[in-house]
Every structure is written in structure tokens, then in C-alpha cells.
Design a protein that fits this description.
The complex is a heterodimer of chains A (about 120) and B (about 525). Chain A has about 120 residues and is of the alpha+beta class. Chain A is built from four helices and nine strands; from the N terminus they run βββαβββββααβα. Chain A has a single domain, classed as Beta Barrel (OB fold (Dihydrolipoamide Acetyltransferase, E2P)), CATH 2.40.50.100. In chain A, strand 6 and strand 7 form a beta hairpin. The model of chain A has no long low-confidence stretch (mean pLDDT about 95). Chain B folds into two domains: about 260 residues, Type I PLP-dependent aspartate aminotransferase-like (Major domain) (Aspartate Aminotransferase, domain 2, 3-Layer(aba) Sandwich), CATH 3.40.640; about 120 residues, Alpha-Beta Complex (Aspartate Aminotransferase, domain 1), CATH 3.90.1150. In chain B, the strands form three sheets. In chain B, strands 1-7-6-5-4-2-3 form a seven-stranded mixed sheet, with helices on both faces. In chain B, strand 4, helix 9 and strand 5 form a beta-alpha-beta unit. The chains are: A alpha+beta (about 120), B alpha/beta (about 525).
Chain lengths: ~120, ~525
């Protein structure tokens, strides 16, 4: 399994043709306490960069962009009752949705862990 | 000169020491703990003496008759009056002090407006009255429409939208109708990051897909990015000017020319028109539609103080698609209301429909026209100049303790933007806002706009005197210095408000919106 990152602070963990998407710990720290997560429906298809979810915090509502194109297979139902999981476990239990990849070649445009950490340091 | 008696104690009395003792009622001094009206009610209580019906009664409501009594609280008239009066005393209002909300102009509501709005000929009319009986009210609408068109340099105006976002929708629906009349499908609306948050919401509500245009380093629209995105799928662009960083979009004319050349329309969010009224005519900048918040620029009550009103001025290209009804002066001097039946005959066959049942917010029209006529054209220009002067006074008085992210880009317009940069570790914009409550000020807008970190947006308006501004600046400076120094007491602010720091996260995650009888 390999984890990639976007400049918009989403992470995507890829396992063959399947992937899990969430927001990074840096993103949740910037958003503040998360109060609601609006998740896509299973079966919904998105292109890379399309708005796939919305995360509401006490500060703002933020669009979550699909890191690569694909089709949603499953969403994290636990977030409905416990949106705070995105704060406490942004890069594990606070994942947002799972998807199948339309084109694994799009992953090449994303950052790896080291590149993302360097990117965040610059902000 | 002796020091002011800041504590308010009689000098011969020694100051209270330590924590105040609790009271048996829970009230503190004359600050009253007010229960919900349902909790105040006594069983069987009633404020009026109604006759019990005698004999056979046949209800006229048929199957709509209520099966069980409504759970209304039973209270006497003085109990109800006291309840709401007590609540009103806990409210902070523009009549009590400044409301430095950026992005949401809150200014003095002149009492002359109120007097005029209460004249029976304006206050006691009904929208279905025959037009010959309401000629004065219709003349107010017609005259105000004329002023709005003149001040903006536009071609037409739709008076009926009931608030700013409603006006946005009206303008975007005009764009949609114009595109349909041209037989073109343009599904995308461009919205810059520096626009008001309602702009993308409005475009989405009207069925457009939203694409964001980034802001440049000076807080204004990235012109190259915008021009690069224009094309046959773009319906138009929604621009807030002055924008929500408090900056004038200098390139608006260039943008409008490019958008028009690409076949699109320019919507301008005119919520901040108070900064440029009498100075700039948006029509000269190529704007096709712009709403004007009468409750911002023209001083009508705002927020909980009264209904909004958001007339939309339209360019020559969009005017044919404006909604009904509208007023028209006849050859004999009387004013007619153009409705669906006579729209075609009146030369307006392509209106997209109606935004509201009737003509608009009459009470706001009378207030706005009173404000305009009592200021005159020169006075309105001074409104804009003083609003901008006051905002720049705030900006430059505080830019040594608070970071002003676009301070280097020149003067601001009507609002001053600061960030949380430079505060001690763990101290945030929220702490500064709570500290201001202790100082006796309503906080400014926080965490908006999103394009800067920990935004604090201050709009003083033209209504505040220099002394008033100096008091606010002094308080904000004191609180900002505590945040920079990491004063731990600031993390627990407010200390002096009836309620301490509330758990806003729990309120958002687990809101309790309905009172339920605990019994």
C-alpha cells in the first residue's frame, strides 16, 4: 500500500485498484473542530479535482477534492455520529471514503509523504 | 484631575474582594437569568379573558380542527412583556454601541427614517389595494428606483428581491434567462476567492457549476487566471467589489471587457456599495447586474432589526429579462404597476417571472429613500469617503500590533483586514474576539475571508466618531497585546459577560433546537 498527498491536503492510500481518501492531520489542525462531514454517495464518480465531500468546522465549510478520478465504493459511516474522528484520527480512523481508481496513472501527479511534509513546512 | 471612578463604587465604600457570593435567584444585580417562555408558564395561565362558548357550537374548520390543544405557554400580558424586554436587554444592538462586523455593514438607523416609514400612507397600505389609492407609496418605489439607477449608472432595476442573496439570485436568473434567449448553454459560473460566500451558493442554487478563481498576492482577483478560464461554457463571473478583503477590484473594467468578449455576463455583489456610492458607478465598469443591500448602504435596519431588501440594478443587456412587477410613470403623471397581464404591452415581454408575491419591502423603501434624500448626492459621496477614512484609520492605528496582510497593497476600502500572525503559541483570533467582549465591544467578523489565516475583519462604517474609533482601537490593541504576550487569562475570556466561553463545538455537533417538557 502506498500513500500519496495533494496540495489541497487530502491523502489517498492505494492498494491495487482500490484507494482510501481522507484529509491530512495538517488540514484538520487548520480547520479546527470538525462538526459535520458531508460524504458522497456510494457509486458516485468523480474526476481528479472534483469536489467529492464537504467538511464543516467551527471556522468554515471546506470542499474536499477527489485526488484522482474514480468511483466511490464506501463511505465512513462512523463520521455521521462522530465527526470529531477527523480531528483525532485524520490519517487513520477518520478516513472519508473508499473508491476504485479510473486511471492509476493520475497518481504520478501527487506527492509522497516526504514531499508533502516538505510542502507543509513551506506554508 | 482625579482618576475616573472606573469601578463605579462610591469612594467611601471599599471595593468588594474576592469572588462575589452567589445569589439565591441566580440573577446577578439587575442582570437577570431569563428562562425560556415555556419554563415560565404556569398551568392554566392565560393573558386574555375569553367567553366560553354556550350551547351548540359547529366549528367552521371541519377536519382541520385541532384535535388537541396547542402546547402554548400560558402567561399574563405583563409576564410576556417582561420576558421579551429582559431578553432585549441582553441583546447587543447597534443602538447600544458599534458593531465592527466586517463584511456585514451594521450602521446607525436614522430616526428620521423611522418617522417617515411610520406615516400611515406608507405603513398601513396593502399590496392588493387599487393602485389609485397607493399612488404615494408607488411614487416612493419609482423615485427610489430612479436614484438606484442613477447612483449605479445602470439601465434598469428590479425592486422586489427581499435581501442581498435574494437579489443575487435575481441577477443570476436574469443572466440565465439572457443565455436561454440566445439559445446558449453555458453551465459554468466563475467565482473568485475574494467574493462573498453567498455568491457561489447563489450560482449553485440557480443551477450553475461553480469554478473558483484564485486571489493574487495583493488580495485581488488573479486576472490571468480569470482570463485563462473564459470560454464558451462560462456564463459569467460573480465579483464582489469592493471585495471581502476590503479592497477595490481595480481590474474590474478589464475583467468585464474580457468576460463580455467571451460572451459572458458580469455579476457584481454590491453588498459593499457603501464604500463607493457617489464615487464610482458600477455601470461604467461594465457590470451587468448588481444587488444593493438597502439595509447596508442605505441604513435600513439590519439583521434581527428588520427585513432586508436587495434591489438589483441591471445593464441594458439584462434589463429585458428582469422580474415583474415594476412601476412605470404614465403620461398623466400617475404611476402604474406593470404585472404579467400588461408586461408585453408595456414593452417587457421577456421577464423571467417573479421574485416575490408583491412589489418588495415597502418599509425599507421608505427608509432608504428618506436616507438618500436627507443626505443628497453630496452627502452620499461623503458617506463613502468617511467609511473609507474610518476603515483606514483603524487599519493604520493597529498594523503595528496586528498583521495587516494587504496593508502594503495601499489603502483599504470600507473594512480593515488583520490576521492572527504574530500571536503567542496557542493564541488565536477567537481569543481576541472573546477578549473584546470583556472590553464591551461586539467582536468583529472572525475567520472570514478564508484567504488569510485567522482573519479579523473590521468595518467601522462612517457612523463612528473619532473618539468612538479611538476607544475601539484602544481596546483591540490591549487585547491584541495580551494575545501576543501569551496572557493566559485571555484564553478564559470573556470573564465579565453573563456567560463565559461557550462550547461552540458541542453546540454545532449536538445542537439542541427544540424545548421538550421535562415532565
Amino acid at each position: 500500500m502506498t500513500r500519496y498527498f495533494t496540495k489541497d491536503h487530502e491523502w489517498i492510500e492505494v492498494d491495487g485498484g482500490n484507494a482510501t481518501v481522507g484529509i491530512t492531520d495538517y488540514a484538520q489542525s487548520q480547520l479546527g473542530d470538525i462538526t459535520y462531514v458531508d460524504l458522497p454517495a456510494a457509486g458516485a464518480s468523480f474526476g481528479a479535482g472534483d469536489t467529492a465531500a464537504v467538511v464543516d468546522s467551527v471556522k468554515a465549510a471546506s470542499d474536499i477534492y477527489c485526488p484522482v478520478g474514480g468511483t466511490v465504493t464506501e463511505t465512513n459511516g462512523a463520521l455521521e455520529g462522530e465527526p470529531e474522528l477527523v480531528n483525532t484520527q485524520a490519517e487513520s480512523g477518520g478516513w472519508l471514503f473508499r473508491m476504485t481508481l479510473a486511471d492509476a496513472g493520475q497518481l504520478g501527479a501527487l506527492m509522497d509523504q516526504a514531499a508533502y511534509e516538505a510542502y507543509v513546512k513551506e506554508l | 484631575m482625579s482618576a475616573p471612578n472606573a469601578a463605579g463604587w462610591r469612594p467611601e465604600m471599599s471595593a468588594a474582594e474576592g469572588a462575589a457570593p452567589p445569589t439565591s435567584s441566580g440573577d446577578r444585580g439587575l442582570m437577570l437569568e431569563e428562562k425560556l417562555i415555556f419554563e415560565l408558564a404556569a398551568p392554566g395561565g392565560c393573558g386574555v379573558d375569553l367567553d366560553q362558548p354556550q350551547g351548540e357550537v359547529s366549528p367552521a374548520l371541519g377536519r382541520f380542527r385541532r384535535a388537541e390543544p396547542a402546547a402554548l405557554p400560558g402567561l399574563s400580558e405583563p409576564e410576556v412583556v417582561r420576558h421579551y424586554t429582559r431578553l432585549s436587554r441582553q441583546n447587543y444592538a447597534i443602538d447600544l454601541g458599534p458593531f465592527p462586523l466586517g463584511s456585514c455593514t451594521m450602521k446607525h438607523n436614522p430616526r428620521l427614517n423611522e418617522r417617515v416609514a411610520r406615516l400611515p400612507g406608507f405603513a398601513d397600505v396593502h399590496p392588493l389595494q387599487p393602485v389609485q389609492t397607493v399612488q404615494g407609496a408607488l411614487a416612493v418605489i419609482n423615485e427610489l428606483a430612479h436614484w438606484l439607477i442613477t447612483l449605479t449608472g445602470m439601465h434598469g432595476v428590479a425592486m422586489s428581491p427581499k435581501a442581498g442573496a435574494h437579489g443575487e439570485l435575481c441577477g443570476v436568473l436574469c443572466i440565465k434567462a439572457a443565455l436561454e434567449a440566445r439559445g446558449e448553454h453555458r453551465p459554468v459560473m466563475l467565482v473568485p476567492e475574494s467574493a462573498h460566500g453567498t455568491n457561489p451558493a447563489t450560482a449553485a442554487f440557480a443551477g450553475f457549476a461553480i469554478e473558483s478563481i484564485p486571489a493574487g498576492p495583493d488580495g485581488r482577483i488573479d486576472l490571468a487566471a480569470l482570463k485563462g478560464r473564459l470560454g464558451p461554457d462560462v456564463a459569467g463571473v460573480m465579483i464582489t467589489n469592493p471585495n471581502t478583503c476590503g479592497l477595490f477590484e481595480r481590474d474590474l473594467k478589464t475583467i468585464a471587457d474580457a468576460v463580455h468578449a467571451a460572451g459572458g455576463y458580469v455579476y457584481c455583489d454590491g453588498a459593499n456599495f457603501n464604500a463607493i456610492v457617489g464615487k464610482v458607478r458600477p455601470g461604467d465598469l461594465g457590470v451587468d447586474a448588481m444587488h444593493i443591500n438597502l439595509h447596508k448602504t442605505f441604513s435600513t435596519p439590519h439583521g434581527g432589526g428588520g427585513p432586508g431588501s436587495g434591489p438589483v440594478v441591471l445593464s441594458e443587456a439584462l434589463s429585458p429579462f428582469g422580474p415583474l412587477p415594476f412601476t412605470a410613470r404614465q403620461a398623466d403623471g400617475s404611476i402604474r404597476l406593470i404585472e404579467e397581464a400588461d408586461a408585453a404591452a408595456a414593452g417587457h415581454p421577456h421577464g423571467f417571472g417573479r421574485m416575490a408575491a408583491f412589489h418588495g419591502q415597502m418599509g425599507m423603501f421608505t427608509r432608504a429613500l428618506t436616507y438618500i434624500l436627507s443626505h443628497g448626492a453630496d452627502g452620499l459621496r461623503q458617506v463613502a469617503e468617511d467609511a473609507v477614512l474610518n476603515a483606514n484609520y483603524v487599519l493604520r492605528s493597529l498594523d503595528d500590533v496586528l498583521e495587516a496582510p494587504y496593508g502594503h497593497a495601499g489603502p483599504c476600502m470600507h473594512e480593515a483586514l488583520f490576521t492572527d500572525h504574530g500571536m503567542a503559541e496557542g493564541f488565536t483570533t477567537l481569543d481576541v474576539a472573546k477578549g473584546l467582549i470583556d472590553e464591551g465591544f461586539h467582536p468583529m467578523t472572525v475567520y472570514f475571508p478564508l484567504v488569510v489565516h485567522g482573519a479579523m475583519l473590521v468595518e467601522p462604517t462612517e457612523c463612528e466618531s473619532k473618539d468612538g474609533l479611538d476607544r475601539f482601537i484602544g481596546s483591540l490593541r490591549a487585547v491584541a497585546e495580551r494575545a501576543k504576550a501569551g496572557d493566559p487569562s485571555l484564553k478564559a475570556a470573556p470573564h465579565h459577560a453573563p456567560r463565559r466561553r461557550l462550547d461552540e463545538t458541542a453546540a454545532a455537533r449536538k445542537p439542541v433546537l427544540v424545548w421538550r417538557d421535562p415532565a
